[in-house]
Amino acid sequence: MSTTAIETESVLGQPLRSAAEPRQKSTIEVTDYNNRQTVGKITVDNPKMLCREVDVYYGQKQAIKNVSLDIGANEVIAFIGPSGCGKSTFLRCLNRMNDTIPSARVTGQIKLDNDDIYAKEIDVVQLRARVGMVFQKPNPFPKSIYENVAYGPRIHGMVNTKAELDDLVRESLERAGLIKEVEKRMLEPGTSLSGGQQQRLCIARAIAVNPEVILMDEPCSALDPIATAKIEELIDELRENYTIVIVTHSMQQAARVSQRTAYFHLGDLIEIGDTDQIFTNPRHKLTEDYITGRFG
Amino acid sequence: MPISPEAHTVKQFDVQLANLRNMVMEMGGLAEDQLKRAIAALDEEDLAATRETIARDRIINGLQLKADEECISIIALRQPLGSDLRLIMSLASIVTDLERIGDGAKKIARMTLHIYDGVSSPPSAKLLRDVKPMAQTAATMLHDCLDALARLDVPKALSIIHSDTELDQEFQGALRRLITYMMEDPRTIGHAINVVFIIKALERIGDHCKNIAEHTVYLVEGKNIQQRRNIDMNVVDALVKDVEMTWTNNP
User: Fold this and answer.
1) Which DSSP string do the residues of B68-109 spell out, in sequence order?
2) Given this model, what pLDDT does residue B232 score?
3) How far apart are CA A205 and CA A189, in angstroms?
4) What is the DSSP string of A210-221?
5) Which of A14, A140, B69, B241 is most buried, most CB within 10 Å of its CB?
6) Are A237 and A251 in contact (CB under 8 A)?
7) CA nearest to B21 within chain A
8) Residue scoring higher pLDDT (A293 or B235)
9) CATH topology of domain A37-291
10) What pLDDT does residue B155 have?
């Protein structure tokens, strides 16, 4: 390297043209960090969930500020953003998990199909059967593998006979890509599985009650790359039947699994758009800075 | 808000990017220099300088390998996204174009050796008449496209795309004239063919400059403006359907 450089300079007999820093990026339409209007199209043609002007407060602190977006049917939408940006908070609004936090208050409108999920007549247990959730750390019940999956259908009265339940458990484990690994050890405790297997067991448990939407809060952050790849492959397969909302800290993961991406920052939805566009031509400077690793 | 607009949180990433940019600009400077040397040597019938130009091509080739390695390393280690991704992909392509421009200069030098090899008598001046203006156009295009790249100057990059049409027309004109000379006097054919290779090399250098300009636009704007030949896609689609029909009807 050094020899070449010296040779070049002496050859040219003049200073090399300096390599300018790329400064003005004109794919960026919003360069003002203080402009916090959502950039991008929030609506989709066939929405499964509609969120409009959602605010969330923890006591006095406002965690989500006036967020509106659609979640399309059979799409995987990824929420990305730095820690504390509100992406998990917003995800938890979608099946009213925030109800469990006494200081949390949610305003605005969130609809699943045509039902306002915060309406008085909505049964939260039924809602969470329609909008299932998978958490960051695999959290199987301290029961057998079989019972982990059978629990939901049983309490929701989805099956009448033992044979039906057996079939449903098998089918759920099959769809979660776990059946081969566990069919001979159904009665062993769920916690005896490896981390990645436990996470797939949790996904099997979530889909056993036949939800319409699955919320995933960093489902792979406690898993190794191989288990992560299996979950990502699974997400892609599940998309045929379910709508999936995934919160992830890994931008590569968001890019791999999702069709749309929403970028949150300090409680605002800054930008939303097709995943390809967000990761190659973001339109807001904040998005660009985040995905290129310039802050956060 | 802990935002520093230009620098990456991981400083080593900035170092790698700056390193890559410097390598590309260095390659650009070398390619420009090689073209100038090749044309000057042809003009002055300086065979020693011609041989030196040929030998120096490997410096550009070596830099290309280094720049490619750097691109691969950045992709593998940093997983660039957004403008960083566009920068890496554009520079990787530009590196190839610059290497080819170097090859073009080498080709001109080779042809110079063929022309003034001392066996045959030197060509008449009219055979070489078009080389200089074409070389001037190509050199200006190369200079401008490197400038546009260094400054991320989109209007300038776009103007280069127009210059390329000009150079193509100059090439067509020069080719027609050479054909006329060859028909008039078949003894000129040997030299004229070498000159054809030279003007073709210049025309190709213009194409590579156009590519560099297009990559510059992509890296700044995120828009791919690569021009294909003027093909009406409707005509192509109709053609494809037509062919399919023929094949299904007469298997």
Assistant:
1) HHHHHHHHHHH---HHHHHHHHHHHHHHHHHHHHHHHHHHHH
2) 57
3) 14
4) --SEEEEESTTT
5) A140
6) no
7) A19
8) A293
9) Rossmann fold (3.40.50)
10) 87
Query: With an 8 Å Cβ cutoff, is A183 touching chain B?
Result: no
pLDDT of residue A34: 87
Mutating which of B9, B19, B22, B26 best tests the A interface, going by the most A Cβ atoms within 10 A? Answer: B26
Q: Is residue B165 part of a domain?
A: yes
CA atoms within 13 A on the CB side of A174: 6
Q: Is B43 left (phi over 0), alpha (psi -120 to 50) or beta?
A: alpha
- Does residue A281 belong to the interface with chain B, where contact is any CB pair within 8 Å? yes
CATH of the domain at B103: 1.20.58.220
Cβ distance B59 to A1 less than 8 Å, yes or no, reads no
pLDDT on residue B238: 65
Interchain pair A16, B26: CB under 8 A? yes
What is the rounded average pLDDT for all residues in chain B? Answer: 88
Q: Tell me the C-alpha distance between A25 and B185, whole Å.
A: 56
Residue B10 in tokens: 């991981």
Provide the pLDDT for residue B230.
56
CA-based nearest residue in chain B for residue A3: B59
User: ipTM beyond 0.85?
Assistant: no
Set of chain A residues whose Cβ sits within 8 Å of the Cβ of B13: 293
With a CB-CB cutoff of 8 Å, which residues 183-242 of chain B face chain A?
A: 219-222
Separation between Cα atoms, residue A49 and residue A169, nearest integer Å? 28
DSSP 3-state assignment of B142? Answer: helix
Q: Does B3 map to a domain?
A: no
* Number of structural domains found in chain B: 1
User: B154–A26: do the CB atoms touch at under 8 Å?
Assistant: yes
Q: How confident is the model at residue B221 (pLDDT cuts 50, 70, 90)?
A: confident
Could you tell me which chain B residue has the CA closest to the CA of A251?
Answer: B81
Q: What is the pLDDT of residues B81-134, one digit of tens each?
A: 999 999 999 999 999 999 999 999 999 999 999 999 877 788 889 999 999 999
Let me know if residue B114 belongs to a domain. Answer: yes
The residues spanned by each domain of chain A are 37-291
User: Which structural domain, as residue segments, surrounds residue B139?
Assistant: 11-249
Residues of chain B with Cβ-Cβ distance to A18 below 8 Å are 25, 150
Domain assignment present for B6: no
Whether A11 contacts chain B with CB within 8 A: yes
Mean pLDDT for each consecutive 10-residue tract of chain A (296 residues)? 36 40 60 90 95 95 95 96 93 93 94 94 93 93 96 92 94 90 94 93 93 94 86 91 94 94 96 94 92 80
